[in-house]
Amino acid sequence: MINITGEQLLGHLLGALDESEHDAVEARLQQEPLLRERLDALQRQLEPLSRLQRTHNPPPGLAERTCRLVFAYADKAAAKVPVENCAPAVPSGWPLSISDVAVIATVLVAAVVVLLPVIQHTRFRAQVVACQENLRSLGAALTQYSDRHDQFFPRIPTKGRLAAAGIYAPTLAQGNYLSDAMHVLCPGSPQGAKPDFRIPSLTELLTASNEQLPVMRSTMGGSYAYALGFFSGGTYRDNRNRNRSHFAVLADAPDPLNPGCIGPNHGGIGHNVLFEDGRVEFLTTAVLPSGDHLFLNAHQQVCAGADENDCVLAPSDVAPLPSSLLH
C-alpha cells in the first residue's frame, strides 16, 4: 500500500491530482479515519486563504475616469507626433517606448509567477531546517541530562502542579542544560514569532495562582511535544535514554483539536521528530515505520505508553495519566 504524503493531500484539496491519484487518495480516505483527520487538519490550515477568494467591485466611475484619461493622453500625443510616425507616443523624457514597457511588465509578471512559489518553498525549508536545529539542541541537552541522572530523561510527575509533558523545558532550563529558551519554539509555529517568550521556573509553577497555572503549563514546553512515560506491570515508569533509533523523544506538537494528527507548525504538511539516538527527521505522517503512533499509545489514548517501546509524545499541558487513573 502506498504512503499518502502531505503534498498529495494538499493536491487533493486543491483539485490538482490526476484522476488515478485522486481515486487512490479518496479510497484511502474512506478506509483510514486518521488520514481523514489529517486532511481535515490541512483544510483548516487553508481556510485563511479562502478569504482571499472574494470578488471586489471597482470604485464608482472608474471606467469613465479611465476613458477620459486615455482620450486626453491620445489627443495630447496626436498634437506632438507626425501622422507618418506610426509608433505610439510616450511622454517626453521617457527612456523606454510603450512596447518596451509592455515587455518589461510581461517579464515581471512571469518572474513573480515563477519565483513566488520558489520563495515560499525556500521559506518553508528554512523553517524546517531551523526547527531541526532546535530539536538537535534539545537532544544534546537531554543527552547531557540523562548522562547525569542514571540515563533517565526529565521526570514527569503523575499528579500535582508539575504533572505535564512540557515540564521537560523548565527542568532543562533550571539545570542549565538549555542555552536558549527559544530552542523550544518552532520557527514555523504561532509561538515562534513571540520574542518575549520565556520558560517559567519550577518555583514559579509551584507558587502560581490557580488562574496563572494553566496558562504557564500550556506554554512552558513551547511548540513541541514531549515523550510521556509508560506502564509496566500496571505501574507508571519514567523514560530512560536507551539510544534507540526508533523511539521518538520530541516532535512538533500535534493538532490541538485532533491530538492524533500532525499539527500546524509546518502548515500541516509534516513535522520534525527527534529520536533517542539524536537523529532528526521530517515526516509527513504521525505513524512511524514500526507502526507506532507518535501521539497515541497502543490503546489509541493520549497518555502514557502501554509498554517501554510504546512512545507517546504529548503537548506541553498534557498529564501522563488520565484523571480516571488518579482516583
Description:
By secondary structure, the chain is an alpha+beta fold. It has a domain at 121-325. It has eight helices and seven strands. A five-stranded antiparallel beta sheet has the order 6-5-4-1-7, covered by helices on one side. The protein is globular.
Topology:
Blueprint lengths: L5 H9 L4 H13 L1 H18 L11 H19 L17 H51 L19 H7 L27 H6 L4 H8 L4 E4 L2 E3 L2 E3 L10 E5 L18 E5 L4 E4 L29 E2 L13
Antiparallel strand pairs: 1-4, 1-7, 2-3, 4-5, 5-6
Helix pairs in contact: 2-3
What is the gist of this entry?
The protein is an alpha+beta fold.
The low-confidence runs, each spanning 5 or more residues with pLDDT under 50, are 51-56, 83-87
Order of helices and strands: HHHHHHHHEEEEEEE
Strand content: 5-15%
Choose one word for the global shape.
globular
Using DSSP, what is the number of strands? Answer: 7
Taking Cα atoms only, what radius of gyration do you get, to the nearest Å? 28 Å
Structural class: alpha+beta
**How many strands, which pairing sense, and closed or not: the largest β-sheet?**
5 strands, antiparallel
Average pLDDT figure? 81
What's the helix count?
8
Which short descriptors sum up this protein?
alpha+beta; 8 helices; 327 residues; 5-stranded antiparallel sheet
